[in-house]
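Hey, I was hoping to borrow your eyes for a little while. For a while now I've been wondering how a particular protein folds. The fold is given in discrete form, as structure tokens running alongside the sequence. Could you read through the record and tell me how the tokens relate to the sequence? Take your time with it, there's no hurry, and the full record follows here:
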Amino acid sequence: MLEHPQFDPVALALGPVSIHWYGLMYLLAFTLFVVLGRIHARRRPELGWTPQHIDDLLFYGVLGVILGGRLGEVLFFQPAYYLAHPLEILAVWKGGMSFHGGFLGVLLAMWLYGRKHGKNFWQITDFIAPLVPTGLAAGRIGNFINGELWGRPTTLDLPWAMIYPWVDALPRHPSQLYQAAGEGLLLFIILWLFSARSRPTGAVSGAFLAGYGSLRFGAEFFRTPDPGIFGTLTLGLSTAQWLCIPMILFGVWLLTRTKAGQMS
């Protein structure tokens, strides 16, 4: 059995300026997006993506992730708290970023990018889908460092079960690390291999939606549920699981249509 190391959330303090680990994880995520994006563009030159395109995608994506992720956390998961503490909405360095909100923010940002640059929406999302999971892994590691989003108690004698002393003395699943491994590394491997050769437009996007939704849905059984707008456990499912269901269904629908050659 392990105990959470209780890291200092501040990685480096320079006078009045503090650099938080959570912020560094986001910086790592954006850096990986650019590096992997350029590798992906080189291995698939027929897609026509240049380093300048990737830099522009990053700019739009950063805005979508930060604005959408924060608003998603406020609206989907903790509306009562942020209504009582409105200034906390701006404190993104403390954590509290919703994937589903960030996902919707990125989709909107990619649509705006496509409108401006005359690119097909699904071609954009197909290109960026394999670049996203490593960033998700970095974000979950940031959650672990911050000591937030801890797992459910376990009665199993797991050598990696972890006690979070500020919560209680119960051994819990380190669900942040489960998610980093599943939605992060495993999903990255699947999508990186799947996107290595030509696929019908929308297929890689569908694989991302179905893959992320399924892995997140499963991981939620090991994670203490967020309160959410649907209640703590509605019909036995968490808010995040309810939000994953349409992702999975739409992802499967996309894959089915692309396999049948119905996407343009």
